[in-house]
Structures are given as C-alpha cells and as structure tokens.
Design brief:
435 residues; mainly alpha; globular
C-alpha cells in the first residue's frame, strides 16, 4: 500500500497542490495584516477587533454555506468564494501601496474576507470527501493539515522577510496572485461535487434536521464541545503571537515571522506524521490529551521572556494543536452521513471558527488590560480546566452509547420522519461509516 494513498486520486492531487500554493499566500497576508494593524493603531484591542471581523461572519453564514454545499455544485461554489478572496487581497494590496489605507478600510475588507470564508469552508471540507474513497479519507484530511501547516511554516517566514524589506503591500499582493493556483486547479478538476437530489423540505427544516442529528449523537456533541472550548480560549495565536513578540520579547516583524514559523513547524511535524503513519479513527485519549497539552503550552507562553524558549513552546503548541484538530476532523468526517455532510460541516466550521471572534476579543481585551502574559495564562488555564471537565463529564459515553444503533445503508433515501432519521444516521463507533 502506498504511504500517501489520497494523492493517488487525480482530482484530490490537483486540489491539494492548488491549496498548498494559495495557503502560503494566505499566511503571508495574515502576518502582514496583523503587523500593519499594530503599526497603524498600536492597539491590542483593535487587532482583536480585526480578528473578530474576519471570523464573526461564520456565525451568520457557516450553516448557510453548509446547506448551500448540499444544494449546489461544490466546485462552482468554491470558484466563486476563492475568486472573492483573491479580489479582497488585491484591493488591500492596492490601498496599502497607494498609501491610502485606513483602519476602517481594513475592517471592511476583513468582513468581506469573513463572509467569503464562511461560505467557502463548509464546501471545501465536504468536497474533500468526494475527491477520495472513504478508505483514504483520513489520509486526505491529514494531507490537508500538512498543506495548511506547511504553508504556516513557509508563509510567516517569507512574510517576515517581505514585510521588513518591502512592506505589507507586497505580502498582500503575493497572496492575491497565489489564488491563481487554486482557481486553475478547480478549473481542471473533473469532480463537480454534485448536490443531493432536490429536498422535499425547506432550508430551515434541513438545518433543524442536522441539529437533531447532533443532539442524538453523543460523540459528535463531545467533539463540538471540545472544539468550542479550545477555539474560544486557546487557539488565538494570530492575536497572541504578535503581542507576545512586541510586549514580552521586545521584538519586531522579523521575530514575529520566526515565531509564527516555529508554531507552523510543530504543526507540520504532527500533520506529516499523521499522513505517513495513518490514523483511521482516533481514540478519545488521542483527542483529549492534545487539547490539554495545547492549553498548557499556551499558558506557558505567558511566562517566557526569551525568544528561543518561546519558539520552542510554539513548536510544541503547534504539534499538539494539529493532533487535536486533525483528530476532531477525522472523527467527525468518519461519523457523519453523506446526506448531511455539508450541513454538519457547516456546523463544525461554525463551532470551530465561529467562536474565534469572541476569543480574539477576549484575548485582545485581556492583553490591553492585564498584559500579554496574563492573556496567555488566563486563556490557557481556562481551556485546560474546561477540556478536563468535558472529558471527565463525558465518561466515555460519547464514544460508546451510539454503538447500539445502526448506520444508514449506503445510498438510502432520506427518512421521512425525524425520529427515523436519527435512528438510521447514528453510526456505530467501531463500524464503517455510511457512504
């Protein structure tokens, strides 16, 4: 068996390469934007506001994006959202290069980014499941994580050099151009990501159907609970790392880029290990323990005053973060039925990304009031305590109580009643998921 079987699928290979190139540019823009906000305003809170505006639209549009990805051709939806993200980056670059950039303009463009991303993410997540066989889905998820975190290593390091030499506009321009790769890949892919047969019920009832599935599936509830806690209190590094760099270490754009690259290096190591070694169905311990470790590592960042130690901590944080994120994503994707995949991935994105605005505001407010060190300690400490409480409170029930119920057979019609839907779509923990 080949070590990276998902790459044997032509369409996934094209999609993965295009995403890898584009993600490098996205990370460059992320670094350049954070540093530009600090240069324009000097305010940790306003930096948090930009993070909030980028992710707040997920609250209003992620479920809609998931429902759309169940109703329309996913490839065409992705072409539209990726084209919008390209235009946003080029407009931002033009404003900065012309010397006309203002904070309010960055806020508007951050909101545009957020809306497009909210519609893009559920479609992109569910599209992956159509580009590979189910047997290779966990490998595809791990490879996507490797691409994301490989870009996190390269992107911030390049951004630190580019911003220091040519300014933030160059980073934004590179990001805009990088979208050519993903648009070309999507144009060449043959898999359309066809929608389900036209539903008999309205959009609202479809969303209610997905929520009922979650309510009836303890394992899914546990995964979403862990994601919400870690996303709210812990994974706020786009806000934390520039503040740690400036306030605790006295560094500049170059040091910021190095620290973000260290964080990405740890995550890339974890993602590559998972892709090469395989991880078909993560155990509860393999999800909970990394969540505890990434929380503890975040708290430790608040105590460090040395660049090498902070970089080492970020390597560890990146490694455990990707183990947690990939474990949650793999478990979730292997559980959910295809008939609900778009809507449930919309809910996944809503929980994982939608709470980020509140986390960014919380971290920004804490750093503004108590300092960057206190923000790390409080966020990491709360995350650790709540993850531990969720794990102990579940008592393993989320990973065993569904085993008495049967999964829906492949290709089965949507049940006519909500109760039969729940009974037929709960998946046995140790069985194969529905196609």
């Amino acid at each position: 068996m080949r070590p990276l079987p998902a790459l044997g699928h032509r369409d996934f290979r094209l999609f993965w390469v295009g995403q890898l190139i584009s993600l490098v540019g996205t990370w460059m823009q992320s670094v350049g934007q954070a540093w530009l906000v600090l240069e324009l305003t000097g305010s940790a809170f306003r930096l948090g506001v930009i993070g909030t505006l980028q992710f707040a639209p997920v609250l209003g549009f992620a479920l809609l994006g998931g429902a759309l990805s169940d109703r329309v051709r996913k490839r065409r939806l992705l072409l539209a959202t990726q084209g919008t993200l390209m235009a946003q980056a080029l407009v931002l670059a033009a404003l900065v290069w012309a010397g006309h950039i203002r904070y309010w303009q960055m806020a508007v463009l951050a909101t545009v980014y957020g809306v497009a991303n909210a519609l893009d993410m559920p479609a992109r997540q569910s599209y992956v499941a159509e580009l590979v066989d189910r047997a290779h889905l966990s490998n595809a998820i791990a490879l996507n994580s490797a691409a994301f975190n490989g870009a996190r290593v390269v992107g911030p390091a390049l951004a630190g050099l580019v911003v220091a030499r040519w300014g933030s506009a160059a980073a934004f321009l590179i990001n805009g151009v990088s979208f050519v790769a993903v648009l070309a890949a999507l144009a060449a892919i043959r898999t359309e990501g066809r929608p389900r047969p036209r539903p008999e019920v309205g959009l609202r009832q479809e969303l209610v159907e997905a929520l009922r599935y979650v309510a009836a599936t303890p394992r899914v509830r546990l995964i979403l609970g862990l994601l919400s806690v870690v996303s709210l209190f812990v994974i706020n590094y786009n806000v934390l790392v520039p503040l740690v760099t400036r306030d605790l270490l006295g560094g500049g754009a170059h040091e910021f880029g190095l620290l973000m690259a260290a964080h990405g290096a740890g995550a890339l190591t974890g993602a590559l290990g998972l892709a090469l070694l395989g991880w078909s169905r993560p155990s509860p311990v393999a999800v909970v323990v990394p969540a505890l470790l990434v929380s503890a590592g975040t708290a430790a960042l608040g105590l460090s005053r040395a660049l090498p130690l902070t970089a080492a901590l970020l390597v560890g944080v990146g490694l455990t973060q990707i183990l947690f994120m990939t474990g949650c994503n793999t478990s979730f994707q292997m559980i959910v039925p295809d008939a609900l995949r778009g809507r449930l991935m919309g809910l996944y994105v809503l929980v994982f990304v939608g709470v980020t605005p509140f986390g960014a505001l919380l971290v920004g407010a804490l750093a503004q009031t108590l300092g960057a060190g206190a923000a790390c300690l409080i966020g990491g400490g709360l995350g650790f305590a709540l993850v531990l409480a969720l794990a102990l409170g579940s008592g393993g029930a989320g990973y065993s109580s569904a085993s008495a119920l049967r999964a829906s057979p492949a290709g089965s019609d949507r049940p006519s009643s909500a109760s039969s839907t729940m009974t037929r779509w709960i998946e046995p923990v140790n069985g194969d998921g529905p196609r």
